[in-house]
């Protein structure tokens, strides 16, 4: 496995799914009513409110009900992801939120840095939300953003289960053909899409992730820790 770019998913790959479901989502729902109360008509909040379908942007009650419904079904739609990033900002800045990265992640970032391997992120979370998560981690140093070259989400790259999204990402770096990229994710369909686009792919199996099928284990490389990755 020789790669020049490590392209990383977030949830279920660098941090537990439970951090997103049991910490980030409840935090967003907790601060939502007060945020709407104080910012509903503000110019800053307009970009988030106006991105919602008009029937939900019309009243605070409809807005909250829709956000709750989307989050209960873990719908990864761009306007929700964008709002979540905004709601999490204060939580990270005040120290209430800190991303619990798996212990093998930061050491691997350091190693890739030494080896000249570029680190890029591709998550359903919005780019601003991705930057917050890597800016405020439980690691030492806590801020891993200086090690990350670029960030991709469903807005600037497209859906994560489509090969065309990975082609778009690779095309931004003509010096790195698709074969130079290694995509790491907990999601089998995402890894299959990356491989279809010509990237290398590997499934990351973390505690709390969905069970992998025998077929997925046969078809793809599966690791439980970044330590298991050979030097790139
Ligand atoms: C980086 S924001 C928090 C995670 C999140 O909201 C999300 O949807 C993560 O999905 P992923 O594509 O990283 O599995
Ligand atoms: Mg994931």
UniProtKB/TrEMBL annotation:
Residues given in the record as substrate binding sites: 123-124, 160
GO MF entries: acireductone synthase activity; magnesium ion binding
Binding site for Mg(2+): 9, 11, 186
Subcellular location: Cytoplasm; Nucleus
Major location (coarse): cytoplasm
Gene Ontology biological process: L-methionine salvage from methylthioadenosine
A Pfam short name: Hydrolase
Keyword Plastid part of the UniProt annotation: no
Catalysed reactions, semicolon-separated: 5-methylsulfanyl-2,3-dioxopentyl phosphate + H2O = 1,2-dihydroxy-5-(methylsulfanyl)pent-1-en-3-one + phosphate
Bound cofactor: record note: Binds 1 Mg(2+) ion per subunit.
InterPro entries listed in its UniProt record: Enolase-ppase_E1, ENOPH1_eukaryotes, HAD-like_sf, HAD_sf
Cofactor(s) required for function per UniProt: Mg(2+)
EC number(s) reported in the record: 3.1.3.77
Keyword set, alphabetical order: Amino-acid biosynthesis, Cytoplasm, Hydrolase, Magnesium, Metal-binding, Methionine biosynthesis, Nucleus
One GO term describing the cellular component: nucleus
Metabolic or biological pathway: Amino-acid biosynthesis; L-methionine biosynthesis via salvage pathway; L-methionine from S-methyl-5-thio-alpha-D-ribose 1-phosphate: step 3/6; Amino-acid biosynthesis; L-methionine biosynthesis via salvage pathway; L-methionine from S-methyl-5-thio-alpha-D-ribose 1-phosphate: step 4/6
PANTHER family xref list: ENOLASE-PHOSPHATASE E1 (PTHR20371)
Function: Bifunctional enzyme that catalyzes the enolization of 2,3-diketo-5-methylthiopentyl-1-phosphate (DK-MTP-1-P) into the intermediate 2-hydroxy-3-keto-5-methylthiopentenyl-1-phosphate (HK-MTPenyl-1-P), which is then dephosphorylated to form the acireductone 1,2-dihydroxy-3-keto-5-methylthiopentene (DHK-MTPene).
NCBIfam families associated with the record: enolase-ppase
Family, per entry: Belongs to the HAD-like hydrolase superfamily. MasA/MtnC family.
Summary of subunit composition and partner proteins: Monomer.
Name of this protein: Enolase-phosphatase E1
Organism of derivation: Diplogelasinospora grovesii
Record gene name: UTR4
């Amino acid at each position: 496995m020789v790669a020049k770019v490590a392209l990383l998913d977030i949830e279920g790959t660098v941090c537990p799914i439970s951090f997103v479901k049991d910490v980030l989502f409840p935090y967003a729902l907790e601060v939502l009513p007060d945020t709407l109360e104080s910012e509903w008509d503000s110019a800053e909040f307009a970009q988030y409110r106006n991105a919602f379908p008009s029937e939900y942007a019309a009243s605070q009650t409809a807005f909250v009900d829709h956000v709750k419904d989307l989050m209960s079904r873990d719908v990864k739609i761009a306007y929700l992801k964008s709002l979540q990033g905004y709601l999490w900002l204060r939580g990270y800045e005040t120290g209430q939120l800190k991303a619990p990265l798996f212990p093998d992640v930061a050491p691997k970032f350091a190693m890739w840095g030494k080896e000249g391997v570029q680190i890029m992120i591709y998550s359903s979370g919005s780019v601003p939300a991705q930057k917050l998560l890597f800016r405020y981690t439980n690691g030492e140093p806590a801020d891993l953003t200086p090690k990350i070259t670029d960030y991709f989400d469903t807005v600037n790259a497209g859906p994560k289960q489509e090969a065309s999204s990975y082609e778009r990402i690779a095309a931004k770096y003509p010096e790195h053909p698709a074969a130079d990229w290694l995509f790491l994710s907990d999601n089998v369909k995402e890894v299959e899409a990356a491989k279809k686009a010509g990237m290398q792919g590997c499934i990351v199996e973390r505690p709390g992730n969905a069970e992998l099928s025998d077929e997925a284990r046969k078809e793809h490389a599966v690791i439980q820790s970044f330590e298991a990755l050979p030097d790139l």
